[in-house]
Amino acid sequence: MEKPPLWKILYLTARPKTLGASISPVIIGTGIAIKDGGFHLLSAVCALVGGVMIQILVNYANDYFDYLKGADSEGRLGPIRSTTAGWLTPNQMRFLIGIITILCIIPGFYLVWRGGIPILIIGVVSIFLAYAYTAGPFPLAYFGLGDIFVLIFFGPIAVAGTYYVQALKWDISPIIAGLSPGLLSVAILTVNNYRDIESDCKTGKRTLAVRFGKNFAFAEYTISILVPIILVPLVLSIFVKKNFYILALAVLLFPGALLIKSMFRLKGSELNQLLGYTTKFLLLYGVLFSVLWQM
Length: 295
What we know:
The protein is mainly alpha-helical. It has a single domain (6-293), classed as Farnesyl Diphosphate Synthase (Orthogonal Bundle). It has helices spanning 6-13, 20-35, 41-69, 82-85, 90-115, 117-132, 146-153, 156-167, 172-177, 179-195, 197-203, 208-212, 214-229, 231-240, 253-265, 271-293. Helix 2 (20-35) packs antiparallel against helix 3 (41-69). The model has no long low-confidence stretch (mean pLDDT 92).
């Protein structure tokens, strides 16, 4: 493939089709804050920018450290990796990773000023794990721990953190609600890992899909889609806030079922399309959740 212009390389390396994983938690956390009368615009914007930049940092770091580990073979089915393809040199990628790290920290200054030590801890750990996902002596993604990282940090921590910097209090609702974007983000990762089972086996990347096989990946994806639609709204409506409108998220069962069917049907590079659709579904879920929560 011919080398694209620099702006397009930077754009593609950010993996824009997956960024809904960092946007949706902020939408949900903000929606809950609005309902509780704690909405704070600047905090919401900083949480959004910070969250998106951390995810971009993860994607850039993955590109670089997977290159160093030789994890991206010529037969890769996913999007082209910039370092492996020679679009960016390792030195250029290291420089860009440093710039993105700074861009993660800048909105964090305000959030820490407003939210204090808890937000500082969340920010520092998030940036550390963005590197540790594929770097260091114990890279999370290579030992099947990436799913747990995604579930927690793109789920309850992202939603509850967004809520906290606005309302300046902790509440159980955003923590439980956070399981939904966390699980749907796991669904995105599962598509990625299922697609790459063969290449990951060759390079020693022991994702859960590699460890437990394709049937496990199917089950993980199915659960990650259905629990946010059925179980999380049920718990929130009955045991937490008595908000029965949230049960209307059941309307997403039909598109969710189509996604699950596609997971069983599609193969190889076809799964890149499903990855994009799953991200769109996550964004739709976040918007619909926030709207229903106001009712």
